[in-house]
Specification:
253 residues, alpha/beta, Four Helix Bundle (Hemerythrin (Met), subunit A), two-stranded antiparallel sheet, 9 helices
């Protein structure tokens, strides 16, 4: 049977209306996977340079705290701003460092428990971001080769879920666990990534992504045809694996 080819430029960006359900599901799946980490696995290295499984979990819990609580979000942003002003460097790097430091005293079990408790609160906190803030407030971002300004709406509706999804992959790879993937949830996230990738490089291509989260996408004519695993596609675009040609076009996670 011939696979359905999706016109990649017709894929609508993730809307604020659907973002909360995607966030809640992804936070829940991350929390479920985190609960399977054994005592001997917390210090294992991950695909995030310099991070152990413990560091990755600390970042995620710190990020969920920020999403769940305006007070915590403001507190983190103040500390990030101070570190950037005094030490220079990248705001994103300072952000993750702050989050890891603020969760450093938690035991592994406490990390797992808090992660579970924050699932709904973090998703709803992002949903409640006011429309004027989502639409009109923007922030500077420097991640690898990407240097641009993001609207808060893009951050809270898209990036924070992509980040959690990719870290779930990082965690599964670190501890050798199977990934829970499906077409409705993971496929929507991957399709949104593929559509943004196509918008960023702006060239014709056919893209076949295999696996439960995959699909076949196309834009324009006479472009190259690419076929690879959907998860590996996202790992390449995030900078976790090498990409060449159109796959060298980065997409933020």
């Amino acid at each position: 049977m011939t696979a359905t080819v999706i016109e990649i430029t017709a894929i609508a960006p993730i809307s604020h209306r659907e973002a909360c359900d995607l966030a809640r599901t992804e936070y829940g799946r991350f929390a479920d996977l985190l609960a399977t980490v054994s005592d001997g696995e917390w210090e294992l290295p991950t695909d995030c340079e310099g991070w152990t499984v413990r560091d990755l979990a600390g970042h995620m819990v710190g990020s969920m705290r920020s999403a769940a609580s305006v007070r915590e979000q403001i507190s983190q942003q103040r500390e990030i701003a101070q570190r950037t002003k005094h030490n220079g460097g990248n705001r994103v790097d300072h952000m993750t460092t702050v989050q890891i430091e603020r969760t450093a005293t938690l035991t592994p079990q406490a990390l797992v428990t808090e992660c579970r408790e924050l699932v709904n609160r973090a998703a709803l906190g992002r949903k409640r971001t006011p429309l004027p803030v989502r639409r009109w407030v923007s922030i500077p971002v420097d991640i690898g080769s990407i240097s641009e300004r993001w609207r808060i709406g893009y951050l809270v509706d898209v990036i924070l879920t992509r980040d959690t999804w990719m870290h779930r992959i990082d965690l599964a790879r670190a501890i050798g666990a199977d990934l829970k993937l499906d077409s409705s949830h993971d496929g929507r996230i991957v399709a949104d990534v593929a559509a943004e990738w196509a918008r960023r490089h702006g060239r014709p291509c056919t893209l076949t992504l295999t696996g439960p989260a995959g699909g076949t996408f196309a834009t324009g004519t006479n472009g190259p045809s690419l076929e690879l695993d959907a998860v590996e596609f996202c790992r390449i675009l995030s900078g976790r694996a090498d990409g060449h040609g159109l796959l060298a076009q980065a997409v933020p996670f």
